[in-house]
Automatic annotation (TrEMBL):
Belongs to the trans-sulfuration enzymes family. The modification N6-(pyridoxal phosphate)lysine is found at K219. One of its GO terms (biological process) is L-cysteine catabolic process to pyruvate. The gene is metC. This is Cystathionine beta-lyase.
């Protein structure tokens, strides 16, 4: 759904109001309406007569047409996400964040094209480029996330797109988005940013010159660890092509999931603020712990790209990592197995805290990731941060007892 309003309000107000169009929240002619656009389940849409059917065929995105083109439930979520990004013209929804990344790239690239991807990219993004895109005749070069304007040296005559992720969701290096955007704009290269860590609240990507802002809504926007969903929000220049490519690829989302995601979006601001605050407190505590070699959190000086984060972002979310001074991954069982308040699992951005051992070095190809001991990633939830600190303190004590 394309929209062009709502950008004059502050983000918190947009979060509360976006997507609640009267024609989606009240039956025609009713004297009152409901707050949330309801869950519209549909495959078949019934037209009143042949003239209405022909009008639909002539303008299939102008209203209800066929289930795959969405219903007011998905349009409300698309509209709300678009309204959160100043400068954006439309949003398309996907059944996962990975599907959103795949659709954005497939809408832009064809055989013979060249793609630049950050070396800090989410691993499934890399495997999509290395396998699916390669098989389609599209070549990928990985770049140092700290490259900035130096990315110009990697551009080839057939470079069509740059895929950024800032900060990287395992290593947390922050990129110089404006510098990379300037290089891209001067050469007609399209920039796609995986903005899942910051969301448009902490980094309004389109406003910073990015052409396509991708989110795994699975993480912070849905926020409750029970939905898979992705989105690409983009400008007027790119929306029609993205929309038609996504339709041809057959992407659509279930209305129950769209409803849950929109419900999550309403409280995104307060959750992010609280989770970010707790995470920063825990990050500072970890940075002072004798077992910890370094903390990978963009708001901490020393994190690669910290100055860029301070310049460009309005805050930090609740996902960060820390590197231990010694030991092997197998030994982290002593730390994580008996934690009371951290689940062990993939994904992040939910209301509950998670811990995950990760290994960046084998994923990288353009740069090296050095770490003397294991890397652990924390997704800080809405629990009391002091309970989380006490839990981690006990875990780190168990870990150190092994040496
Ligand atoms: C999880 C994640 C994705 C993919 O989202 P799914 O909904 O799990 O497919 C994309 N990018 C980043 C940075 C992620 O963490």
């Amino acid at each position: 759904m394309a929209v062009d309003n709502g950008k004059d309000k502050a983000p918190a107000t947009r979060l509360a109001e976006a997507g609640r169009r009267a024609d989606w929240t009240r039956p025609p002619g009713a004297r009152a309406g409901i707050v949330n656009p309801p869950v519209w389940h549909a495959s078949t849409i019934l037209f009143d007569n042949l003239a209405a059917l022909d009008a639909g065929i002539a303008a299939p995105d102008a209203g209800l047409y066929y289930g795959r083109r969405g219903t007011p439930t998905s349009w409300a979520l698309e509209t709300a996400l678009t309204e959160l990004e100043p400068g954006a013209a439309g949003t398309c929804l996907y059944p996962s964040g990975v599907a959103a990344i795949a659709a954005a790239l497939l809408s832009l690239l064809k055989a013979g094209d060249h793609l630049l991807v950050t070396d800090s990219a989410y691993e499934p993004t890399r495997s999509f480029a290395d396998r699916t895109l390669r098989d389609l005749g599209i070549e990928t070069t990985y770049y140092d996330p700290l490259i900035g304007a130096g990315i110009a040296a990697l551009v080839r005559p057939n470079t069509r797109a740059i895929l950024l992720e800032s900060p990287g969701s395992l290593s947390f290096d922050v990129q110089d988005v404006p510098a990379i955007v300037a290089v891209a704009r001067a050469r007609d290269i399209v920039t796609v940013l995986d903005n899942t860590w910051a969301t448009p609240l902490l980094f309004p990507a389109i406003g910073h010159g990015i052409d396509m802002s991708v989110q795994a809504l699975t993480k912070y926007v849905a926020g409750h660890s029970d939905v898979m969903m992705g989105a690409v929000t983009t400008t007027a220049a790119h929306y029609p092509k993205l929309r038609s490519a996504s339709y041809r690829l057959g992407y659509c989302v279930g209305p129950d999931d769209a409803y849950l995601t929109l419900r999550g979006l309403r409280t995104l601001g307060v959750r992010l603020a609280q989770q970010g605050k707790s995470a920063l407190k825990i990050a500072h505590w970890l940075a002072a712990h004798p077992a910890v070699e370094r903390v990978l959190h963009p708001a901490l000086p020393g994190c690669p790209g910290h100055d860029l984060w301070a310049r460009d972002f309005t805050g930090a979310s609740g996902l960060f990592g820390f590197v231990l001074k010694q030991g092997k991954r197998s030994q982290t069982a002593a730390l994580i197995d008996d934690l009371d308040h951290f689940g062990i699992g993939f994904s992040w951005g939910g209301f509950e805290s998670l811990i995950l051992p990760s290994n960046v070095a084998p994923i990288r190809t353009a740069t090296q990731f050095e770490a003397p001991g294991p890397l652990l990633r924390l997704s800080i939830g809405l629990e009391d941060p002091d309970d989380l600190i006490a839990d981690l303190a006990a875990g780190l004590e168990r870990y150190q007892a092994q040496f």
